[in-house]
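Try it yourself: sequence plus adenosine-5'-diphosphate, in.
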Amino acid sequence: MSVVLVINSGSSSLKYSLIEVERERELASGLIERIGAGGVVSHRVFALTEPGVPAPAVLDERFEEERPVADHDEAFAVMLAQFAEHGPSLDEHPPAAVGHRVVHGGARFFEPTVITPLVEINIEDLSVLAPLHNPANVAGIRAARAAFRDVPHVAVFDTAFHQTLAPAAYTYALDTAIASEHRIRRYGFHGTSHKYVSEAAARFLGRDLADVRQLVLHLGNGASITAIDGGRSAETSMGFTPLEGLVMGTRTGDIDPAVLLHLARRAGMGIDDLDALLNKRSGLQGLAGSNDMRDILAGRATGDEAAALAYDVYVHRLRAYIGAYIAQLGGVDVISFTAGVGENVADIRADALSTLGFLGVRLEAGRNAVRGPGIRRISADDSAVAVLVVPTDEELEIARQTLSVI
Ligand code: ADP
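Structure, out:
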């Protein structure tokens, strides 16, 4: 039974997940937060089911504690202690490999890659393009390689799935010399999720991936939409960074870049102010004071005008992207919603698609309203386009891709 330890290392957090890949079963997961500033540890163990029976993870026990965690090396020691104390035993379920989520693979990495010292240097080098993410990913890789010396480590890149974009899709209409000197192009993100969801959708429908034109709407705190043609990413809304595209929890998504020039000239805002404005103080947060869609929905229901406008802006942008991407694909067979908002908010799904009746897109309200854990169809039987809710599972996808290269 092949077990993979999946690591998602952020600047002050470490997420881990121990996965039995063939049975698609999560054995345990955990989150260590506030690294370097206190330390909060949560470790979850999932119930074991009969051997040979594929089963979704069922939460068995959750352990939480506060303890100081100075850095990523110590976070790994704490993680190992959690396994030793609460299980499952890593001796009984030894990882065959460690899979690392890496945000930016630049134009260099287009598939899961076994981490050698040279690969590690290249990932670190890409910090120029992802200053918030890649250094944290490298810190996690270094600490993990020290903690798990005898197994291969594999990097799975958020950008990799979008390496199939055509030049027309990834090129910005910017002075070519500047663009190439600074490696400015669309890279796209959330690739692991878009790949997982599009493959799961085709399998669910019994369709050959190569024959379907799909839209995947990953609507979480970060949000992106990808047009996928025959399993290949053809267009995606995040760009040089994860800032471009849809309205997000705290990010603007698309905005006229002249706004930045104006604010720099007229409001005296510096680079760091603008960075914080675009990434942290905008989106739903900027429009209505909360980055959480649940608050927006509650506000809208009680007549809060800011919340209602935030909702409308969110949906308006979604519709524009959906229309544009259908035009790029020349039609669409499957539309899938995923991540926190996509999986949970029936109104957003309905409103995002409500103008597409002329293309034969028809949701069935009852199916759309049902909540449930697994993948499900929400379109009417006579809809020309299958519309699905597909819970994403980036950890499982990273584990699968990790196994595929060792
Ligand atoms: P991330 O992008 O951080 O991985 P998620 O995919 O978990 O985020 O999505 C988080 C967001 O999803 C929350 O901020 C919230 O806006 C939204 N969300 C999660 N659950 C619900 C729910 N039941 N109803 C409405 N919105 C939800």
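One thing you can check immediately is this: The longest helix spans residues 305-329.
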